[in-house]
Design a protein that fits this description.
Length: about 300
């Protein structure tokens, strides 16, 4: 594959539980340039866990599409990468060095790999993926592990030397979880210390924040996570390519819902509730709508609620 993007790219940041295939299909309609799977553990890929394999699927217009892996062991990393090499629709592999949840910290994958004592494994893991992968490799990380332990410059240089193609950088420390604000100045320090593209991530929810992040960081582009939940048309807004009116929003929500049912079957009805909660945020009858949503169990009921009750 040639160049992954042109101009200033807009990424959809991976959000486990949200940025599944149906959601990614929707954001692609609005000009998102690169999408990532939800984080998948290499062990689950190796065990050929059916749920995990389904998470690797890509929607028709999704190129370029990266699968994000998390790993705490090199042997399964090798096997997982060899498996991903065979999936011709996967355009690249991203390695997670940011996940802050307890289970990840305990098991030794994600953000805990930014701790000083885990530097050797950080390097080995990148080496293993870069050497085995027939596709471009990127990493996604945070500023460091403990608050104030800023290691992202050093880690970015190591990643660059090992052959990583770009870095998505969330401007918080792992221990911060999602508290405080993303530090765009620190992201800027990383941008200036490597030659590979750095993508700024954290708290970008509208055009103003997007401009602020781009100006302060000098990054190649931005990655949007939570800002796209309940607002998949944000990519259009950032490109300043027009506004999405209430009726168009309704059609988008309906098509997102249909894609969920197609992908998950009946289970999609319940899984879509959290998206409907997000879509109705700030709506005048939002809390009534959300309680109706929580009682709806059939496809027709949900469609009717979106058509008749959702005020946009
Ligand atoms: C519910 C949720 C799930 C997430 N899942 C992932 C994940 O699977 N992989 C990953 O690299 N980051 C994950 N993140 C972090 C986001 O990709 C992103 O770095 C972070 O939310 C900051 O960006 P934002 O302010 O645009 O959301 C997750 C964040 C949230 C809130």
């Amino acid at each position: 594959m040639g160049k992954l993007w042109s101009g200033t790219p807009l990424f959809l940041a991976p959000l486990a539980g949200y940025t599944d295939r149906p959601f990614r299909q929707v954001v692609k309609e609005f000009g998102c340039d690169i999408t990532f799977s939800e984080m998948v553990n290499v062990n689950a890929i190796v065990y050929q866990n059916p749920k995990t394999l389904k998470m690797l699927e890509k929607s028709p217009k999704e190129t370029p599409y990266f699968v994000q892996i998390a790993s705490n062991n090199l042997e399964n990393t090798r096997k997982a990468v060899e498996f991903l090499n065979q999936l011709e629709w996967v355009d690249g592999i991203d390695i997670n060095f940011g996940c802050p949840v307890k289970k990840a910290i305990r098991s030794g994958f994600g953000g805990v790999l930014l701790k000083e004592e885990n530097l050797p494994f950080f390097k080995e893991l990148i080496k293993e993926v870069v050497n085995r992968s027939q596709k471009p490799v990127s990493i996604k990380m945070r500023l460091g592990f403990g608050v104030g332990e800023f290691v992202a410059v050093e880690r970015a240089k190591i990643a660059e030397d090992l052959g990583v193609k770009f870095i998505t950088l969330h401007g918080r420390y792992v221990k911060q979880m999602y508290r405080g604000e993303a530090d765009y100045c620190k992201i800027g320090e990383v941008v200036r210390s490597v030659s590979i593209p750095v993508i700024a991530n954290g708290d970008i929810t509208d055009y103003r924040k997007y401009r602020e992040a781009m100006e302060i960081t000098g990054a190649e582009g931005v990655a949007i996570g939570r800002g796209a939940v309940g607002k998949p048309w944000i990519f259009l807004e950032l490109r300043q390519k027009g506004e999405v009116g209430p009726e168009q929003k309704r059609e988008v929500i309906l098509s997102h819902f249909r894609a969920m049912v197609e992908f998950y079957g009946e289970r999609g009805v319940i899984l879509f509730r959290k998206h409907l909660h997000s879509y109705s945020k700030g709506s005048p009858n939002g809390s009534r709508f959300r309680s109706l949503v929580n009682q709806a169990t059939s496809i027709e009921e949900v469609e009717n609620l979106i058509r008749r009750e959702l005020q946009l």
